Amino acid sequence: MNERSHELGHAPVGRLLWHFSWPAITGMMCNALYNVVDRAFVGHGVGPLAIAATTVAFPLMIILIALSLLIGVGTTALISIRLGEQKKEEAEVVAANGTTLLILLPLCFTIFYFIFPEPILRLFGATDEVLPYARDFMHIIMLGSVLGSIGMGMNNFIRAEGNPIMAMSTQVLGALINGVLNYIFVLVLNMGIKGSALATVLGQLFATIWVLSYYFTGRSLIKLRLKNFIPQLPIVLNIISIGFAPFALQVASCLQQVLLNKTVLRFSGDLGLSAVGIIMSIVSLLLMPVLGLNQGAQPIIGFNYGARQYARVKETLKKAVAAASCVSIAGYLIIQLWPHKIAGLFTKGETALTSMTAESMTVFLGMIFILGFQVTCSHYFQAIGKAKHAAVLSLSRQVLFYIPLLLILPHFWGIDGVWRTAPTADILAAVITAVFIFREMKLLSKRESQEKAKMKAVELTRHHCC
């Protein structure tokens, strides 16, 4: 094992979490900026209908992200555990199998999309006015789907082997290129929503080239060998089982977004759809720092769990929950204090869209301050390979609570009922998460005691032998 992986099991947890998390947070914020930048530029350069089009396209982009997370998270967790177990060759087989899947899955989904583009976009909420914009935007995005999958998925592999700075630079590079090209294509060259989509794909292209250069120029700990790219069913199933929780969460988010689009269209029309798009951009900005903290914690937790250093696992989780909670509380305060200024970033002056967005956002995100606890605890189970636990916690908010509430509350309060679904679901999901994590900590403490007893027995045996 090289020095980077050795550090995971021996460096102070607080310093290690910071070392891994700040690059991940920076990178995840850059990922969030893809959608935020797209909506901001098309809002100023094209208009509200273009924002509505990106909102319609959002569920499709969620599915692409879901496929990347299905493979990326599952592969990353296995790599961390195998490295913790001192099985570097097995980690290399896992990485190569994961890379193959990152190419095949989005490619199949892209083919499916181009067979039924208009029905899919209408299913996701495109009206006659919004459809042309949504079609122009999504056609280009789907053509670059494999690039986005490789860049996002393989970047997790880099973080798993203990190189968070390189992982961060990949995401920063893609976001910077996307932002600069959005300005040039949309505001300077007047390419409209097509220009914004093209900027996104080119940003993903450069990020993918950057990731591949890391693996094919000899800088990586894990080597991608040609013989390992042939999928092995046990490894594929293991990757999918661990990555299923974030995948299912994203699929549930897609379903949630579709239902949200349809419900808002019913009560508020295209203007409400535009407001939803802006709110989702704000949600992504708030969520990405928390996800970045979890990405930073994942290799630490996975490595030490594999190495049976349970005290370090618990310490990492506690510090990650505390940091994520601080981030989500700060985000909540900013939203409640300056909602109109935040909404104004996506519109020209004080408009009806600005007012609707500001008023609905303060309600919709009214319990966002508990997000850090719920997300971090659910990601903990992914990091240690407990796929079923992770899936239940990840799906509790969307499937068990949010979607049923979205089908019920608007019948009583109309559009106000739509905005009240999110905070209610947040509270209920946090309660279930607390129950799961309390039981897990008791189990971990028991295993920690057993490991200490074994070590003590070994020391006594050595002492008697001497």
Question: Can you give a write-up of this model?
Answer:
The chain is mainly α and 466 residues long. The chain is built from 17 helices and no strands. It has helices spanning 3-10, 13-45, 48-84, 88-115, 117-123, 131-143, 145-160, 164-188, 192-216, 233-306, 310-337, 339-344, 352-364, 371-383, 387-408, 410-413, 415-465. α3 (48-84) packs across α10 (233-306). The longest helix is centred in the middle third of the chain and has 74 residues, at 233-306. It is globular, with a radius of gyration of 22 Å. The mean pLDDT is 84.
Q: Brief overview, please?
A:
By secondary structure, the protein is an all-alpha fold. Helix content is 86%, strand content 0%.
Q: Whole-Å distance between the termini? A: 31 Å
Uncertain spans: none
- Mean pLDDT, to the nearest integer, reads 84
Largest sheet: none
- The secondary structure category is mainly alpha
The helix content is over 70%
Strand residues, percent: under 5%
Number of helix segments? 17
Shape: globular
Order of helices and strands: HHHHHHHHHHHHHHHHH
Rounded to the nearest angstrom, the radius of gyration is 22 Å
Counting DSSP E segments of at least 2 residues, the number of strands comes to 0
Assembly classification: single chain
